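Protein modeling request. Please complete all fields; requests missing the sequence field cannot be processed.
Requester role: graduate student
Desired output: 3D structure, token encoding
Chains: 1
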Amino acid sequence: MFTNRATHQERPLRRRPISVMQFSNRSKLTSLRKLLDTVSMPSNRRQPSALRAAISIWPPRVSTDYAAEIDRAVEAGIAFKGDALRVKVQQQRDEIALRRAEEDVRLASAKLVQILHLDPIVELVPRDASVVPLSIVSTTDSLGDLVSQALAARPETRQSAALLSAAQHAKNSSIYGPLIPSVGGQAFFGGLGGGMNGETGHFGESEDYVALLNWRVGPGGLFDFGNIHARQARVRSAAFAVDKVIDQVANEVITSHTRLRSLTDQIATAKQSLSDAAEALRLGQERKEFGVGVVLETIQAEQDLARARNDYLNLVTDFNKTQYALLRALGRLSPPWSTSGRRVH
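Delivered output (345 residues):
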């Protein structure tokens, strides 16, 4: 998806595609996982990406080329100088937008290099400056089914349920545990003998047996109400945490699903707007006139096309990010490493 290029001639780097298979150690796979989490979070929907910034460079360059054509018309005497200056103002504004877009490309590349732990001087550029909507999660499934899938698959729900079960067992042990006595037993074996006037005869065997049942009263034993109340409070806290996790997971699924369906409709509208703006620009360029009204009309059509392209691009990138956000909310993003530390193939 991305290629890289060196920014210093002292350390030339040839272009090469960046793919997941290049990350052969655990730290870089973890970085890739972090990257997926980063782009899927709703708070990062508006952050510029290298692909988005690279595509936004195109419209200002088109306007710059058209301004050069107007300058040639002025030199040929078929357009007024004052009108050409008005066109130049529009062209200079587009040049500022062009420079900002180039800056966004470099900054987005630097951020991606940092996340992937690559050589800092490497500049990543999109291999193909086009973006299409991804189809990862179906939007036709009912919202209730998606929430149920998320609650069953998310590790947070299993963790909170396990903590609640542990708290309940601890509470039961504080109530019923002291009722179980400690059992003990003792046995004494020996002999007993003697007689009158210092005689030592007449010995007989002696055996004693003792069985013990002990209950502890007080702290750590029976009637330890302080410990019982503390364990009950932990159970209520764990139950509250379970409800909170369930609400959070359900909210993430509902938010991503709702946004995904909304973006689907917005993309269809933006695609039609892009087609209409391109047709308007084509018709404006076919007029072959150099009056200022027509010239500014053509530049305005270019700006409309640029806005339509950027709107479409923003919607598609947000749509793709929301797909991953919903995939994460459903618990379907498997980690690159298993709990045993072995790589998952």
